[in-house]
């Protein structure tokens, strides 16, 4: 029995000594091991904030009034519901990105140019190209809106919270 206890004690002490210890003193060989790859978390194009990009198209400058023009927003909602809801849902990703909060991520000029000139934007604007890739290569259709209608849609987007 004493031999059994001695043997058990030696095993227990050996286990404690081999498992414990200071990791900072241990040095592992790096031979044959790959260096850890640092990966940056890439932000989806639809979530990226790019307020200085005005896009490619006819709109170079827009001044938005502090107050939302309710009549223009109502007209914009009508246009949006008629022309845009096949691909866009107001508050969630669908075939295209959701417009809710778009003016926190994009300049008004960029939004207008995307509405009026989607083909040119996808060809020349890096963000529009990234959005095309994010949304499975489904390009935004040119709905042939007038600048007035596109501006009304932009005003409607301002009402979406």
From TrEMBL:
Pfam families: Cytochrom_C. InterPro entries: Cyt_c-like_dom, Cyt_c-like_dom_sf. This is Cytochrome c. Keywords: Heme, Iron, Metal-binding. The keyword Metal-binding applies. Residues 71-161 form the Cytochrome c domain. PROSITE patterns: CYTC (PS51007), PROKAR_LIPOPROTEIN (PS51257). It comes from the Bacteria.
């Amino acid at each position: 029995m004493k031999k059994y206890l001695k043997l058990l004690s030696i095993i227990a002490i050996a286990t404690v000594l081999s498992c414990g210890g200071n990791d900072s003193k241990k040095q592992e060989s790096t031979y044959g091991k790959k260096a850890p790859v640092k990966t940056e978390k890439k932000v989806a194009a639809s979530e990226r904030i790019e307020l200085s990009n005005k896009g490619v198209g006819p709109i170079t400058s827009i001044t938005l009034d502090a107050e939302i023009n309710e009549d223009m927003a109502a007209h914009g909602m009508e246009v949006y519901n008629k022309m845009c809801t096949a691909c866009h849902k107001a508050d969630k990703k669908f075939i295209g990105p959701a417009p809710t909060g778009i003016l926190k991520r994009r300049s008004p000029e960029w939004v207008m140019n995307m509405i009026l000139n989607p083909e040119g934007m996808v060809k020349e604007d890096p963000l529009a190209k990234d959005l095309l890739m994010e949304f499975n290569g489904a390009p935004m259709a040119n709905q042939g809106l007038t600048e007035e209608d596109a501006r009304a849609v932009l005003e409607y987007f301002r009402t979406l919270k």
